[in-house]
Amino acid sequence: MREGQSLERTSSPTVPIILNVNDLKQFLYCPRIVYYHWVMPVRPPATFFMQRGTRQESRFEQLEPRRVLSRYGFQEATRHFSLEISDESLGLIGKIDLILESPARVAVVEFKATAGRLAENWKLQLCAYGLLAERHFQRPCPLGFAMLNDSEELIEVELDEALKSQVCSALKQARELVMAQQFPDPTPVRARCVQCEYRNFCGDVF
């Protein structure tokens, strides 16, 4: 469990614990990361890629106000940067890089310090942020965008009902993992373990 947290203090009348959207992304990448966060808290050192991503996120906030809204399909919208939203009915909390708010709808934008393809766990992370934005602004969030910094590519993701259903299912599984406090199997994609900051805690992987 995270330092300073407990299952009791992160509970609500609706769900046993409030997960972070990042927990969802990590659970889909490798369930052991969520176990290390919540059940057996460890603090691995920040990797080069994590530090680089933090620096580039600051750069994103500086440059974004200069970009035109039409690239997102909005004529007019209010930009909200680094807005943290929680929703007890979803059992979810997250800080969203950018929300575009118009009178009829909202959209979420996430910055990714990469030039590669948008991984499946990132798409579900984007959808989870969309669900939070919908609840907070009481408007539909049909689209999410991923800004790939290294290639300056903007990827549009439709946040449809199928994707939202996947998010809710993954949240349920991640929450069950935390409540059971059982050490899960590692990801079957062994290439993910090579640069993982938690690899030294998994004695059965290498």
Walk me through what this model shows.
- The chain is α/β, with parallel strands linked by helices and 206 residues long.
- It has a single domain, classed as Lambda Exonuclease, Chain A, CATH 3.90.320.10.
- The protein is built from 5 helices and 6 strands.
- It has helices spanning 21-29, 31-38, 48-63, 120-137, 161-180, and strands spanning 19-20, 78-87, 92-101, 106-112, 143-148, 153-158.
- Strands 1, 2, 3, 4, 5 and 6 form a 6-stranded mixed beta sheet that branches.
- The radius of gyration is 17 Å and the shape is globular.
- The protein starts with 18 loop residues before the first strand and ends in a 26-residue tail after the last helix.
- 31% of the residues are buried.
- Residues 1-9 have low confidence and may be disordered.
Task: Identify the CATH class.
Answer: Alpha Beta
Q: Give unreliable regions as ranges.
A: 1-9
Spatial shape: globular
- Radius of gyration, in Å, reads 17 Å
Short overview:
This protein is α/β, with parallel strands linked by helices and 206 residues long. The chain has helices at 21-29, 31-38, 48-63, 120-137, 161-180; strands at 19-20, 78-87, 92-101, 106-112, 143-148, 153-158.
Descriptors:
206 residues, alpha/beta, Lambda Exonuclease, Chain A, six-stranded mixed sheet, 6 strands, disordered N terminus
